[in-house]
Amino acid sequence: MDKKEISEEEFLKRLKRTRLIRRVISGIFLLIVIIWGIISLFPMYWMFVSSFMWIGPSFTMSDIRWFPNPPTLRNYVDFFQLNAPFWIQRRPWQRWFLNSLLVALIPTLSNLIFDSMAGYSLAKLRYPGRQTIFWTIIATMTVPLFVPLIPLYKMMFDFHWINTYWALLFPGFAGVGGVFLFKQSIQTLPSSLIDAARIDAAGEFKIFWKIVLPLSKPILALMGITGFVGGWNSYFWPYLVTNSSDMFTIQVGLTGMMGAGAMGIPPGVEAYGRSFAGAALAAIPVIIIFFAFQKYFVKGITVGAFKG
Amino acid sequence: MFKLIKRNYVYNEWFWAYVFLAVDLAWSTLFLFYPMIKGVIYSFQDIRLQNISNPHFIGFKNYINVLTDPDWWHSVKVSAVYTLGVVPMGIIIPLTISLLLAHFRRSIRDFFKAAFYLPGVVSAVIMAMTLKWIFDPMAGFMNWLLSLLGLPTQLWYSSTSEALLTLIIMNWLSSHGFNILLYSAALDRIPKSLYEAAEIDAASSWRRFWKITWPLLKPTTLYVLIISVIGSFQAFGGAFFITHGGPMKATEFLNYRIYVTFYQFGEYGVAATMSVLLMLIVIAVSLLNFKIMGSEVEY
User: Fold this and answer.
1) Which residue of B has its CA nearest to A66?
2) Interface mutation vs chain B, best among A18, A45, A61, most B CBs within 10 Å
3) Can you tell me the distance from the alpha carbon of A154 to that of B55, in angstroms, rounded to the nearest whole number?
4) Does pLDDT of A286 surpass 70?
5) For residue B96, what pLDDT is reported?
6) Which residue from A33, A147, A287 is facing B101, i.e. has the nearest CB?
C-alpha cells in the first residue's frame, strides 16, 4: 500500500541510495579483509625480503627498507658457505634437505597404508573390541605430548637409536592420528558395495584393495599431502633425537642456526641473514605444494571436525 | 548348514579385522600406549639421568615436590594468562573475517581463504624466527614502524614486563587460517531460507546475527574454543624459539618448564609428574568449557 504513495522517480532515487549504501558497506568490508590479509601475509613477505637484505652485525632500524635496496644474494652465499675459507667445516645443508625429505616421505607413505587399513577395519568390520579400540584412539589424542615423549626418548637411548634414521623415521611409521580421519571417511562409503563383493566371495583383502582404496582417493590424497607437509615442518622430535649436524633435518638446522632451544648466548643479528636464506629455501616446497593442492587443505579441515 | 556358514563368516570377519588393525595396533602399543603408561609410572619414580639404570618408586614425592614449588605455580600462571590472552582473539578475529567474507562472491572468498591459510603451512621454526626478527628490539620492523608513526619504541620480548604480552600479540597477528576455514565452512552450512525468513520479518542484521548465525555456529565455536584452550595451555614454540622462557622466567610456559626439566636437567621423573599434572589441567579446563558452552549445543 505504501508503494502507491511515492512516485516512480522517488522510488528509483531510494533504490539508488540503498544500492550506494550497500556498495559502500561492502567496500569497507573488503578493505578490512584486505588489511587483515596483508597483516597475516606480512611475516612471510618479510622472511623472503630479509633473505635478500644484507644484515650485518651493525644492522639497525635505520637500515630497514620495505624492499631491499639493492637486493643481494650474499645471505644465500653465506648459507651455502660458498666463499668460506677451506678450513671451516661446511654446514651439511644437502643432508638437512635430504633428511627432511625422508622424514616427510617415508612415515607418510607407511601411514597411508597402515592407517587406511586400520580405519577400514574400524569403520566397516564388526568384531568384539572395536569400540574400545576406537575410543582408546580418541582418548590418546588429548594426552599432552610430553607424557609419552619422555619414556619414548629413553627408549631410543636403550635401543641405541639416538642420532640414527631409526629414531627419525621408525616411531612415526604408523599411528593413531590418521586412523581417525580414515575411519570417518571410509564410514561414508556405502556398505552395500562391500557386502555385494563378499557375496561374490571376494577375499577381505581384495575388497579393501579393489573397492575401498579406489573409493578413498580423496582422503588418501589429503592425508598424503598434509602428512608430507607436517613431516617436512616437524622440528621437535628430530631436534630431540639427533645430535650431530649431518643427521639434522632442515628445520633442526635452522633451529640451531638461530640458537633456539639452547641455554647458551643466542647469536647476534648477523645470524638472521643466512638463516632467512635457509628458511626461504625450506618454505618454498611447502608453498608450492599448498598452491598445487589447495582444495585438499580446505577439505582436510571439515573432514574430522564434526562427525566425532 | 546355514548356521555353520554364518559362524565361519563371522570368524573370518574377526580374523581379517584384526589383520587390518595389526600393524597400527602393534606400532601404537609400542610407541604410544606403552610410553604413555610408562610416563605415568615415571611420575611415581625417582628417575634421573644420573640414576637411569636403577629407578625406584617413591610414591607421591614427585607430586608433593612439584605442587609445593612456587616456580611450578608461576608457570601455571604464565600459561593461564597466555591462554586468556590468546583464546578470545582466536575466536573473534576468525569469526569476524569469515562473516565479512560471506558477503563476497565465491571466487573472492576462495582467494582470501587461501591467503589467510597460507602462513599456516610454513613451519613453526620459520614463523617463530621471522616474528622474532620483526619484533627485534634493536633492528626490528615493529619498532621501525612505531618510530615512523612517532611512537616510542618497545623492548618487546627482551623486557620482563612485556615479554608475555609480545608472545600474545605475535599469536594475534599470526595466521588464523585454520579457524577462518572452519567458520566459513560452518557459515556455508546455514540454510539460506532462515535468512530469507528473517528478511521478510525485517529483522535487523544485528538481530539476525544473534538469533540465527551465532546459535547455529555454536558447535563450531565450542570446537574452536576447546582446541585452542588445549593448544595454548600447551604453548611451547614461543618460549623455545624466541625467549627461552625468559627474561626472568617471564614466559616460562608449563610445556617449556617440562622441556627444561626433562631435556636440560635430565630430571625424568619430575618432568613426567609435571606432564601428568598438565594433562589433568587440560582435561579439567576442557570439561569446564563443555559445561559452560556445551549445554545448549546439539550435534
Assistant:
1) B141
2) A61
3) 13
4) yes
5) 92
6) A33
| B14 and B77 in a common domain | no
Please list the alpha-helical segments (H only) found in chain A.
2-5, 8-51, 74-80, 93-124, 130-140, 146-158, 165-169, 177-187, 191-199, 204-207, 213-215, 217-233, 236-241, 250-257, 270-292, 294-305
Domain range for A287: 93-305
Q: Is 70 exceeded by the pLDDT of residue B165?
A: yes
Show the cell assigned to B54: 636403577
The number of helix segments (H) and strand segments (E) in chain B equals: 15, 2
DSSP H/E element including B223: helix B214-233
Tell me which residue of B226, B227, B231 sits closest to B124, measured CA to CA.
B231
Give the lowest-confidence range in A63-67, A148-152, B97-101, B294-298: B294-298
Asked whether residue B44 is assigned to any structural domain, the reply reads no
Spatial separation of the C-alpha atoms in residues A140 and A126, rounded to whole Å: 23
Structure ipTM: 0.87
Q: Is the pLDDT of residue B200 over 90?
A: no
Q: Output the nine-digit C-alpha cell for B251.
A: 614466559
The one-letter amino acid at B4: L
Question: Grid coordinates standing for B39?
Answer: 610416563
Tell me whether residue B51 is in a domain.
no
Give the number of domains in chain A.
Answer: 2
Tell me, yes or no, if B206 comes closer than 8 A to chain A by beta carbon.
no
Task: Produce one character per residue of B135-169: b if its CB has 16 or more CB atoms within 10 Å, e if not.
Answer: bbbebbbbbbeeeeeeeeebbbbbeeebbbbbbbb
Min Cα–Cα distance to chain B from A276, Å: 8
The helix/strand/coil state of A48 is helix
CA-nearest of B97, B167, B136 to A32 is B97
Residue B105 domain-assigned (yes or no): yes
Cell of B33: 600406549
Q: Do A233 and A122 fall within a single domain?
A: yes
Q: Read off the pLDDT band of B275 (50, 70, 90).
A: very high
C-alpha grid cell, residue B139:
633492528
- Domain containing B24 equals 2-30
H/E stretch holding B56 reads strand B56-57
Tell me what the mean pLDDT of segment B93-113 comes to.
Answer: 89
Q: Do A146 and B258 touch (CB under 8 A)?
A: yes
Facing residues of B57 across strands? Answer: B45
Classify residue A54: in a domain, yes or no: yes
Query: What is the rounded CA–CA span in Å between residue B225 and residue B293?
Result: 9
Whether B107 and chain A come into contact, CB under 8 Å, resolves to: no
What are residue B45's DSSP bridge partners? B57
Residue B114 lies in a domain: yes
**Cα atoms in the Cβ-side hemisphere of radius 13 Å centred on A255:** 30
Nearest residue in B to A39, CA atom = B173
Instruction: pLDDT band for A300, please (50, 70, 90 cuts).
Output: low
Which residues of chain A make contact with B282, given a CB cutoff of 8 A?
142, 144
Question: Does B268 touch chain A if contact means CB atoms closer than 8 Å?
Answer: yes
Identify any residues that bridge with B56 across adjacent strands, giving them in sequence order: B46
Q: Residue B71 carries which side chain, given as an amino acid letter?
A: D
Q: What are phi and psi of A86, to 5 degrees?
A: -65, -25
* Same domain as A256, residue A188: yes
Q: Are residues A56 and A111 in the same domain?
A: no
